[in-house]
Automatic annotation (TrEMBL):
Keyword check for Transport: no
Keyword annotations: Cytoplasm, Phosphotransferase system
UniProt subcellular location: Cytoplasm
Keyword flag Transmembrane helix: no
Principal location listed in the UniProt entry: cytoplasm
Organism for this UniProt entry: Kribbibacterium absianum
InterPro entries: HPr, HPr-like, HPr-like_sf
Stretches assigned to the HPr domain: 1-85
Protein name: HPr family phosphocarrier protein
Domain of life: Bacteria
PANTHER family named among the record's database cross-references: PHOSPHOCARRIER PROTEIN HPR (PTHR33705), PHOSPHOCARRIER PROTEIN NPR (PTHR33705:SF2)
Amino acid sequence: MVRTEQTLKDPAGLHARLAVSLAECAKRFESALTIRFKGIEARADDVLQLMQIDANEEDVLLLSAEGPDEQAALEALSGTLASSC
């Protein structure tokens, strides 16, 4: 398992369009990807779970990946999150 923390830079927070982008990214990998914030953990491939996180700009999210392509998956998810703003 690999993990990283990332600050959400999108002024709109974790909104629906970003949740869809993250889910599409996560579905490209075999590894299980999760995003955690304030005790809520969401599967990164599930838009509805991501929307429940309700994170805002400058909130710190914990991203994790576990599986055969975990490093590449985590980097892609992190890149998707960073390029959203």
